[in-house]
Amino acid sequence: MADKHIDDISGVETTGHEWDGIRELNNPLPRWWLWTFYACIAWAIGYMVVYPAVPLLTGATRGVLGYSSRAELSAELAGAKTAQGAIVEKISTSSLPEILADPQMAQFATAAGAAAFKVNCVQCHGSGATGGAGYPNLNDDDWLWGGKIEDIHQTIAHGIRYADDAETRVSEMPAFADILKPIEIRQVAAYVVSLTGTPHDPAMVEPGKALFADNCASCHGEDAKGNREFGAPNLADAIWLKVKGEEQIAGQVRQPKHGVMPAWQTRLGDTTVKELAVYIHALGGGE
Amino acid sequence: MNLYTAKDPKAEQSGGKPPSVPNEPLYAARKKIFPKRAEGRFRRFKWLVMLITLGIYYLTPWIRFDRGPFAPDQAVLVDLANRRFYVFFIEIWPQEFFFVAGLLVMAGFGLFLVTSAVGRAWCGYTCPQTVWVDLFLVVERFIEGDRNARMKLDAGPWTADKIVKRVTKHAIWLMIAVATGGAWIFYFADAPSLAFDFLTGQAAFVAYSTVAFLTATTYVLGGLMREQVCIYMCPWPRIQGAMLDDNSLVVTYNDWRGEPRGKHQKKVAAANEAVGDCVDCNACVAVCPMGIDIRDGQQMECITCALCIDACDSVMDKLERPRGLIGYATLNEYQSNMALATDNGQTAIQPARVRKPDGMFSDRVRHFNWRIILRPRTLLYMGVWTAVGIGLIIALLSRDRLEINVLHDRNPQYVLESDGSIRNGYTIRLLNMIPERRTVLLSMMGLAGAEMKIPTLTDTSDRVFAIPVEPDKATTLKVFVTLPKGAVGDAREGFSFIAEDRASHEKDVYRANFNTPGAK
Questions:
Q1: Domain tally for chain A?
Q2: Chain A residues lying within 8 Å of B417, measured CB to CB
Q3: By residue range, what is the domain housing residue A209?
């Protein structure tokens, strides 16, 4: 910018550049803009002093306020916990029927139970609590060990066939491969299939019925409707826990599989187990 | 000379030379404006508008309206926390917000209608910026005196008197600003209790910050920036360029009767030269809150506050000449009269061409005809405005105060029960949109054989349930519908949930689906 050029009309100095006869005026910045700019700089300096700002090799400067977003989060979480404290305390000291009778407690427990279910239970029972082969569907009205709230609570608290819990629910179906002949096992399977009205061979069912009365009725009942004392499944209903079809039923009779559910009382505490029981009970099959 | 006048006769005379570039900077520093007090019919009308608009703004939140024990008794209330909007007998839930959208559409078309018919009437009379600037000017005049006194004070040195006057003025402005911001928050909470909380320091932070913000904007925009808001910040003046046409009324200096202007008319007339009505007294310039000279023609800055009309009319009255040298006129009317006065642009303005020998206006002078307001454009705006209005009224009169919303369970989609029946779960929300308790009958239509069960209500299954619902609330229910084994088809089946209030004959139907294992 060797020559200083002054615009004729405005009397303002130009930047010295020229494009096809067009020059840019070198007006000063508007005052309000300049002061806003200075204010931003002052703000930035203050911010760097007060808040964590400058990155260092292994961290960052802390700022004189000692602010951290993690501390803020844990404070908020603690605040939320405190806010829930009263109702959680009420649930922990109330009995299950009392919780169900109180709409506020029931609503909170259902929501809390749903949250705990998503963390601890969906791995086996599925996100919709619909289960799968060997893992019971918790929505329906078919219960192995009982569908009353107390029964559900007991199952969750102490588990099933869980060796580390003294009060766990235990039962075991013998392997009939050692007891019955292969043809007899097929006959029993045919009878069990016939109970739910599915197509079957009458020649197999008749001897199967007799074999069932001798070998199976003690646990599954004369009418094959199961026994919740032993967790013996109802064989006369539409719901099959582990198997489907005659072949698989025969297989289960020959060499039964047994599911295991952990005890949750020691892991989650009684309050959470209560909340889980309320949630499961409210899924639609609760008795 | 008006900028939009067809031809400048002087340019014609000078041989059609293009106008030279004005030898002045493009940047204009703000000129201080000291509007003089005007008197006249438009000023009186503006006082009335100010009284009404400010009255509505300040008093509305304090009007009570009894809605019974389950709803607030404030006539106009925007209850953001509970998401309810109350306007007298109308209660709006969030999903009915289209009523507010409809009102905004009406406001938009109303502005189009008013602007195309009578120009920037919104800007000149009812815009909050105009009303508050007017109010602030009242204070300024009261403290510092009228135009000449204020100019003298402003130019003078900082004496004790000046300091006292300035401090008093700004203090009163700030008090008005606080009252403005303060009135706003009462629309959002129960006004009397909020007023008590606010004054005793117990109100929410948002209340104080809102008042502080609105105080700042009122003080800065109304007191300090004034006309600059209209000229530089507001988009509405620019939009109005599309709204105005040749038949819109705008504040116009009728130079066809005013020119040639002159202070020494008698002398000029005695010399037998042409004289117009304008005596160049500058009264129109002195009262203008935008600091313009209306005699320069239609300008972007003009908010058509019509105070120059008042100023000019009172001068014309004194001179015993007809009013309306400055007045509302359409561009068509003005151009026709200009053509008459200048012989279609052939000559300079000749007052004799628009007057009869006795001094009265010639019959060829065009005057405003009210019928021009009814033209296709305004009729279209009016039609749309009315249609939206009628639509809103019909929607308001026929709207349901009882609604049912159903959320079908997605996981699981269905549950097989031990007896082979199929169960579906639904979350049903019954919206009781009146502030009264009532009993809603929830029933099913279709899906023969199926029954509902609502465990939180009762253990029995049925196809009809009587459900007590809370006033002005949504009641949420978990409903299980079970279809017996024999009735289960292999496709998804449609049916309806019906919510009904037998007492008020209100009914809402929700079309729902029932999922079965066979459904794809």
A1: 3
A2: 140-142, 238-239, 285
A3: 182-254
B339 and B414 belong to one structural domain: no
Contact A139 B23 (CB under 8 A): no
A176 lies in a domain?
Answer: no
Tally of CB atoms within 10 A around B348: 17
**Domain stop point among A46, A67, A88:** A67
Residue of A nearest to B457 (CA): A103
How far is the alpha carbon of B483 from chain A, nearest alpha carbon, in Å?
Answer: 13
Question: Tens-digit pLDDT profile for chain B (520 aa)?
Answer: 344 444 444 444 444 445 555 566 666 678 889 999 999 999 999 999 999 999 999 999 999 999 888 899 999 999 998 899 999 999 999 989 899 999 999 999 999 999 998 889 999 999 999 999 999 999 999 999 999 999 999 998 999 999 999 999 999 999 999 999 899 999 999 999 999 999 998 999 999 999 999 999 999 999 999 999 998 899 888 888 788 888 889 999 998 888 888 887 777 777 777 788 899 999 999 999 999 999 998 888 899 999 999 999 999 999 888 898 999 999 999 999 988 888 888 888 888 888 887 778 888 888 888 888 888 999 999 999 999 999 999 999 988 899 999 999 998 999 999 988 999 999 999 999 999 999 999 999 999 999 999 988 888 999 999 999 999 999 999 999 999 988 888 888 999 999 999 998 899 999 999 999 876 5
A55 forms beta bridges with A60
CATH number at residue A277: 1.10.760.10
Q: Do B417 and A238 touch (CB under 8 A)?
A: yes
Look at residue B386 and tell me if it is in a domain. no
Nearest CA in chain A to B482: A284
In a domain, A286, yes or no: no
Q: What whole-number distance in Å separates Cα of residue B301 and Cα of residue B304? A: 9
CB contact under 8 A, B25 and A103: no
Q: Do B212 and B254 sit in the same domain of this protein? A: no
**Element (DSSP H or E) covering residue B477:** strand B473-483
Of B240, B275, B297, the position where a domain reaches its end is B240
What interhelical angle do A202-215 and A182-195 show, nearest 10?
100
Which residues on B lie below 8 Å from A12 (Cβ)?
25
The verdict on a CB contact (< 8 Å) between B455 and A234 is no
Q: Which residues from B are below 8 Å from A128, CB to CB?
A: 410-412
- Residue A74 C-alpha from the chain's centroid: 23
The residue among A40, A67, A94 that closes a domain is: A67
Residue B430 Cα, gap to closest chain A Cα (Å): 18
Contact B474, B440 (CB under 8 A): no
B70-85: b (≥16 Cβ within 10 Å) or e: ebbebbbbbbeeeebb
Q: Which of B318, B342, B368 is the last residue of a domain?
A: B368
Domain extent, residue B298, equals: 246-368
Same-domain pairing of B111 and B203 = yes
